[in-house]
Design goal:
This protein is mainly α. The protein has one domain (22-101): Orthogonal Bundle (Cytochrome Bc1 Complex, Chain D, domain 2). It is built from six helices and no strands. It has helices at residues 2-14, 17-20, 24-35, 56-60, 67-75, 89-101. Helix 5 (67-75) crosses helix 6 (89-101). The longest helix is centred in the N-terminal third of the chain and has 13 residues, at 2-14. The chain is globular, with a radius of gyration of 17 Å. Keywords: Heme, Iron, Metal-binding. Residues 22-103 form the Cytochrome c domain. This is Cytochrome c domain-containing protein. It comes from Rhizobium azibense.
Length: 103
């Protein structure tokens, strides 16, 4: 019984926030709702609506691009070339996971 209890507790922790941070479909929905005004957010889209805004595929293909780098960029307070969009930490993780899935 003790082993079963430990296994359940380990299972609960293993399926916690790390699993939630990888919600690529939610990230895709957010990208379409929030980012697509300026960026090409879908696979195969070459041109962004705003010429200076890189496509999400181009961002994903940037050498050294990581989830951490995207999270920092998306949570920084101000970017002169981007509107000040406020996303929850979970939303940022999901959008980052979606962008990286396009590589």
């Amino acid at each position: 019984m003790r082993t079963a209890t430990v296994a359940v507790i380990v299972g609960i922790f293993a399926t916690g926030s790390a699993a939630r941070a990888q919600d690529i479909l939610h990230g895709r929905r957010l990208a379409l709702e929030v980012c697509a005004t300026c960026h090409a957010v879908l696979a195969g889209q070459n041109r962004s609506p705003v010429a200076e805004a890189p496509s999400f595929e181009a961002v994903a293909a940037t050498p050294g691009m990581t989830a951490m780098a995207l999270n920092v960029w998306l949570t920084a307070q101000s970017h002169p070339t981007m509107p000040n969009i406020i996303l929850s930490p979970t939303d940022v993780q999901d959008v980052s996971a979606y962008i990286l899935s396009l590589e």
